[in-house]
Design a protein that fits this description.
About 60% of the residues lie in helices and about 5% in strands. By secondary structure, the protein is mainly alpha-helical.
Amino acid sequence: MNRPLAGLGRGNLRTELLAGVTLAAIAIPLNIGYAQIAGLPPTAGLYALIVPAALYALLASTRQLIASPDAAAAALVGSSLTGLVAADSGAYVQLALAQALIGGVLFAVCGVLKLGFLANFLSAPILVGFVGGLALDILVSQIAKMLGVHIDSGGEFVDKVGQLFSGLGTTNGWSVVIAVGAIVVLVLGRRLRAVPWALVVLVVSSLVLIVFHLDKAGVDVLGSVPAGPPVFTWPQISWHQWLQVVPSAFALTLVTIAEGLLVARRYAERHGYTEDPNRDLLAFSAANLGAGITGGFTVGSSASRTAAMDQAGSRTQLPALVAAVLTLLVVCFGTGLLEDIPSPAIGAIVAVAVVPLLGFRDFARLWRLRRFEFAVAAVCFLGALFLGPVIGVVIAFVLSLVDVVRRAAAPPVDVIAPSGEPMSAFRAVRDDSVTTAPGVVVLRFAGPLFFGNAQRFGDGVRAAVTAAVDHDVRTLVLDCEAITGVDTTAADVAAEALDWCREQDVEVAFSRVRTVLRAELDHFGLVEDARVFPSNAAAVDAVRTDRPVA
């Protein structure tokens, strides 16, 4: 069994410990900002770095993926809960806890049922569009924070944009100065990754605010942060309210499965170790259950922090445990240091973190490579932006299924004509492994036979035989190497097509039939009185010499 701390030794212990300090310096300010995006108190973001992160680090198979609330998850939490209760009410926090607990149960169900393969049903274009839409929604709120303009951060995107523009007259100059300075430091500091620039920005901006009394000049600050470790709790809400957060919890779970498992797999392949997606789902379950009972909120995966740890040389989950301990020390003894953090600085940190999520390069690449997938990404982008994240996830999932069915319903149909002569039926190809003979047509159907593409198979058979009529076709050989299965509807359509061939005095033969497929063909009666050959060449040779198969 793969262990998250596998590979840890005296040779890399110092690197892993320093990476943990760096992770804490990055994660603490970001999680404070993400908690604000979600409409929750700063402690919710900090508590999510302690018990949930530690549970995931200890239980996951992946050695590098960092589990934490991220920008997309925070936006989804905020938008889904704001429509249920007021963000400043006590019930709001309780709903966030319930949402995390339900997510924990959903992750557990997926892990037990081994549903890690669901990660493959949200393609890259769909994630690009969905996350990009959430990122733009987040960015509007952070721009308002950097300008010192007060807007309803939990409102709809259009409303927030309208409030931002109408409030430009109330822009606070000092807020703009702090935000611009923070952005400059964060952007230029990317060249020197060893320095925790987010922490530097928070410390310096807080000192500037205190020295020049900028809070009296209208600059918003984080304010009082309750001190103390996380305590065990349970959401005090009605059963009706529990049911209300199920759809958003499902959406959060689906997005985390898609993004988190793919990121974990990418790093495992890069560094040559194995990971178990179903075990990682159970680790996400434990993390979210831990968040729900200790005052945090939904925990997903952080691709940016995982990349930062990879660049720092970390190859274990030790940094997550170190960051959890340091965060615990902060919430117990250092919350007073957080009170004077300027909100524009937090907004700048979050904005710089989410700008890459807008996916400009990804959209440009999709436009260049495949317009259909660009359209899918654009629909998901607009859906997440204007219809809400939950509906956006539903749209994304439906589009994934539509795309899968669309591809499966139109597999390539290749035809190897008699004597290699071209025909108009579907795609005429040359196969150097087969020397066709007069009167023989080989048809290769590249996909499983099911109700969605059955008619395409039937049309392909008829078209191949009809197009070869001038070649006095006597035998149609069906190359079955790429056919992995047959359902009832496809079997009925195939039987009709093969009966039609026999009515045209064309013999039907099968080649390269897999053992499992042969059993299905026998079950549906498709190979009765038909010859089955181990290869196309054997079929052509047998037909040429009119020899039956041995």
